[in-house]
Amino acid sequence: NSGAGYGRAIVLVGPMAVGKSVIGQQLAQQLGVPFVDTDAVIVEHHGTIADIFAGRGEHAFREIEARTVARAVDAANINRAVVSLGGGAVLDSGTQQLLGDCTVIYLECDAETVAERIARNTGRPLLAGDAMARWETLFAARRPVYERLADITVDVRSGTVAEIALRVEERL
Ligand code: S3P
């Protein structure tokens, strides 16, 4: 990745429940650019993520996700919009390629910090059951991918949403 490429999409990646959507929304507002949450786009067109997983399976979800991400990133590359991805979106090889042309922000967190949010969450099928153990397993597997794709890594273990969004902006 060629650093914080001017005019390219700013894409937020990282594991579930680190705040990609709220931080992305705040960052876009600061920058005065549009914000797209790809999970929200999927829900708008296909119903809840839990229902897609239950009815059609994870594989179908990943196909929908890859298409949605590709459209969102293509559009965001034109106006330097901010895009937040679902935690598993980076596993798709086509998506990885697209992200090579974007400014990729990895929101780095740890299990302790997200535990409380995850414990309350019901909309994340991959975290059903023993949620924290699942989160840690998924994070361990995906962490090298986040790290490899990241142009900028921002620690989100402390601070308000507003503070974190400013922290991101300073690094662009
Ligand atoms: C997933 C993360 C979710 C959502 C889906 C699968 C994952 O997005 O895309 O439940 O595989 O990590 P968030 O990271 O916004 O929770």
Task: Give the arrangement of secondary structure elements.
Blueprint: E1 10-13, H1 20-31, E2 35-37, H2 38-46, H3 49-79, E3 82-84, H4 93-99, E4 103-108, H5 111-120, H6 131-149, E5 152-155, H7 161-171
Parallel strand pairs: 1-3, 1-4, 2-3, 4-5
Helix pairs in contact: 1-7, 2-3, 3-4, 5-6
Shikimate-3-phosphate binds at residues 16-17, 20, 39, 49, 86-88, 124-126, 138.
Catalytic activity: shikimate + ATP = 3-phosphoshikimate + ADP + H(+)
Pathway: Metabolic intermediate biosynthesis; chorismate biosynthesis; chorismate from D-erythrose 4-phosphate and phosphoenolpyruvate: step 5/7
Subcellular location: Cytoplasm
Please give a handful of descriptors for the protein shown.
172 residues; alpha/beta; Rossmann fold; five-stranded parallel beta sheet; 58% helix; globular; disordered N terminus; binds shikimate-3-phosphate
